[in-house]
Amino acid sequence: MTDYLLEARNLTMRFGGVVAVRDVSLSLREGELHCLIGPNGAGKSTFFRMLSGQYRPTSGEVLFRGQSINGQSSAKIARAGMGIKTQVPSVFNAMTVRENVMLAAVRALPPNLARRRCDEVMKRIGISHLAAEKVGILAHGQRQLVELATVIAPRPALILLDEPAAGMTGEEVEGLGDLLVELARSCSVIVVEHDMSFIRRIARSITVFNQGSVLVEGPADQVLSDQRVRDVYLGREVA
Amino acid sequence: MDYVAIILLQTAISIANLVLISAGLAVIFGMMRVINFAHGEFLMLGGYTAVIATQHGVPLLVSCFILAPVLVGLVGLVVEYLVIRHLYGRLLDTMLASWGVSLILIGLVTVAFGNSVSGISTPFGSLSIGRFSIGFYELFLVAVTLVMVIAGYLVMRYSRVGLIARATMQDRDMAASLGVNQRAVYRATFVTGAALSGLAGALIAPIAGVVPTIGASYLAKCFITVISGGPAIIAGTLSASGLLGGVGGIMTFLATPVLAEVALLAAAVVLLRVLPQGITSKFFRRSQ
Amino acid sequence: MKTPLVTSGRLGAVAMILAAAWALFIVPSGGDMTLILSGSIYCAFGILALSLALIWGFGGILSFGQTAFFGIGGYAYAVLALNIGNTTTAALLAILVAAAMAAAIGYFMFWGRLGDVYLGVITLVLSLILYRFINQTSGSEWKIGKAPLGGFNGIPSTPILNDLDGNPLWPEDIYVLCVVALILSYILCRLLLATYFGRVVVALRENELRAELLGYDTRLYKLGVFSIAGGLAGLAGVLFANCVFVSPNMFSLTTSSQLLVWVIVGGLGTLAGPVMACFLLLAFSAWLGTLNAGVWLDPNLVMGLVLTLFVLVLPKGILPLMRSGCDRALAAFRRPAPAAEPGEAMIGEEAR
């Protein structure tokens, strides 16, 4: 057995003749916050979808809590304790914010505890004042927060977030950063992100993707000052 | 020996029959991803065209190959203009509206021609094999279907129209961004589908006869064939017809046509459990 | 925001209670036999409309062949009652048979993760084939136990439900039974949608991916609600068998079309709407029948025009339209209080 919470072993993903991800491994211990970055088309989203079980890797294997998730349904993976936030906010638009969060909580907890958890999560994320609103009428950033609330409500052991800061205001991004750092005390977090200031704020360890493979991997300060990373990804931003 | 020959011929006929009556539906499904619930009525209109024209002295082949496709194609154009084009992009509403159109067409034909069966005699006589016999007309239909499929393949493969059709089927947004006029493609698709159904309806009229509600009796077979085949028009229709027509032909011979349809449905349901997007989703991926 | 005392939702509830009271207490004492007989049939069809409104409007499952379970329920009742004699047991078993049949078909469809179009077509084909199959069972070799299937004639000897002493119920009793069954079915659907199970069903219509990512096995929930709706359609079939008798027409494309029209006209995503539309359209076609206006009033033509026009012009159906109209009228009446936002009225429908 392994003492890692999540382990990706030699993942490769081919679409027809294109190799989107080539032989990438990653392991994550409990309580780690890890970021995946890289330029567009570097393969980080594909890698993310293999980790979350939405894509089945062409070769290689993903172990979550020591169990392979290859070929398992999203529902089963979620029940094993993985919370997934997709790139486009995926919420129940015709339902209220409270109903959204409640549906997430009640799957994992008995009803009275779920109600308490639901209030607690909405308060922490700062959407309590929206509880009775239909999600469909909210702004993009607010929907992101609602989705985040549904992801963390069942108390997952691992949270995977695909570009959570997209479409948020500066203030919301700051709040999100604090929240993720706080979350990482009780569970593990993997974030795919574009927003570099956001990455600087939260990251402790980073994997940089380029052209389907890992370019650099390591502690945040070390990676962010690496010349190769600046060349492929940060160059424009720093310059 | 006779027995084997007759079963083989019967199976060929039943496969060709499925291809023939499903072709129009398959074209519309492949290109637009909607099921045209008025398909049965397009077949029915084709049949009426053939019967009425023949009764007025027009040669059967003229009414089948010219009058029926043109007339039913025109009906398709009118339906597209009045109904379908307003629901562009709304797949479910398009299907529901086509269901409404189906009822309207049944109603109109009942009003015009009454709710009674009429028909024309089957031409060409029959072929005897030992104790059994098979109509030459049915064999003629097999030949016509074969020609249709080959022509369809050539059009899809080598013509400009075929290129546009293949591009739209692969990725409609990409095709649109390359300058293909989606609305024109949809209109042409709907009219082509209707004309093909008109042709098929006319061709089978001498065997099946016509009545305003006859569409419903073709519907089950056509629907099963097209959804089992998946969205690839030619490969899908051919493979599904081959499989289901084979099952159907043998069951017709061993039991009754109705039990053959039950077997057909069962086969299709099991097939879709294994291959949810139809046969062509797994095999023949790159086909048309 | 403070909820006003009079809302369209509350008006609707009052109207429904009044209608139910009228149907239950005033109609039977009136002694109008035509009303009682057709009222029974209307209620049976109303339950059928509810079953489609539930799975399509709330579960997002396109079942174009809900009549299959309607017919199966009816035939199962007739066959079982003729064989075992006890009509109450037969009725209960028949509902179970319809639900089990729905579960079996549902298993193949949901575990194959078939798309909407495929679901609609498969269910419709199921009813079409049952129609063709039953139609050709007129020979004497087609019987199940003591019950001849009777082909296109159906089973005119379909037994009527018995009272406690074993005597067949009177038409007045059947009428009351049908009305009560409709009311209870409506309440059942309402309660079901209010439960945790029901909320998940609505949630997966809204966003199947999110429901999966939250850990819900959407196939199970779909199978559950599809089977319940199958049972409801079966109940409608049993009642219909008691009002008339079972015949292949229960499976026919005409019945499927009517059912579809009721739900579209009444309004997808509502429960009361399709029942209302069912009553109105049945009454409308009965009235057209009395007009003697010649061939132009072909029922298919009328139904097709209604369906096409609603899809093109009023795709939301009449009940949502009535609600927003009512809300607007109430808001105007309450002036100078601020008018309700129209967008809110649309989205708010489900909660009522």
Automatic annotation (TrEMBL), chain A:
Gene3D superfamilies: P-loop containing nucleotide triphosphate hydrolases. Keywords: ATP-binding, Nucleotide-binding, Transport. GO terms for cellular component: plasma membrane. The keyword Aminoacyl-tRNA synthetase does not apply. InterPro entries: AAA+_ATPase, ABC_AA/LPS_Transport, ABC_transporter-like_ATP-bd, ABC_transporter-like_CS, BCA_ABC_TP_C, P-loop_NTPase. Residues 6-236 form the ABC transporter domain. Pfam families: ABC_tran (PF00005), BCA_ABC_TP_C (PF12399). The keyword Metal-binding does not apply. GO terms for molecular function: ATP binding; ATP hydrolysis activity. This is Branched-chain amino acid transport system ATP-binding protein/urea transport system ATP-binding protein. It comes from Paracoccus versutus (Thiobacillus versutus).
TrEMBL record, chain B:
One of its GO terms (molecular function) is transmembrane transporter activity. CDD domains: TM_PBP1_LivH_like. The lineage of its organism: Bacteria, Pseudomonadati, Pseudomonadota, Alphaproteobacteria, Rhodobacterales. GO terms for biological process: amino acid transport. It comes from Paracoccus versutus. It comes from the Bacteria. It is found in: Cell membrane. The chain crosses the membrane at residues 6-29, 60-84, 96-114, 134-156, 222-244, 250-275. GO terms for cellular component: plasma membrane. It is a multi-pass membrane protein. InterPro entries: ABC_transp_permease, BCAA_transport_permease. Pfam families: BPD_transp_2. This is Branched-chain amino acid transport system permease protein.
UniProtKB/TrEMBL annotation, chain C:
It is a multi-pass membrane protein. The chain crosses the membrane at residues 6-27, 34-58, 64-84, 91-111, 117-134, 174-197, 223-247, 259-289, 301-319. It is found in: Cell membrane. It holds the Pfam family BPD_transp_2. This is Branched-chain amino acid transport system permease protein. InterPro entries: ABC_transp_permease, LivM-like. Keywords: Cell membrane, Membrane, Transmembrane, Transmembrane helix. GO terms for molecular function: branched-chain amino acid transmembrane transporter activity. One of its GO terms (cellular component) is plasma membrane. The lineage of its organism: Bacteria, Pseudomonadati, Pseudomonadota, Alphaproteobacteria, Rhodobacterales.
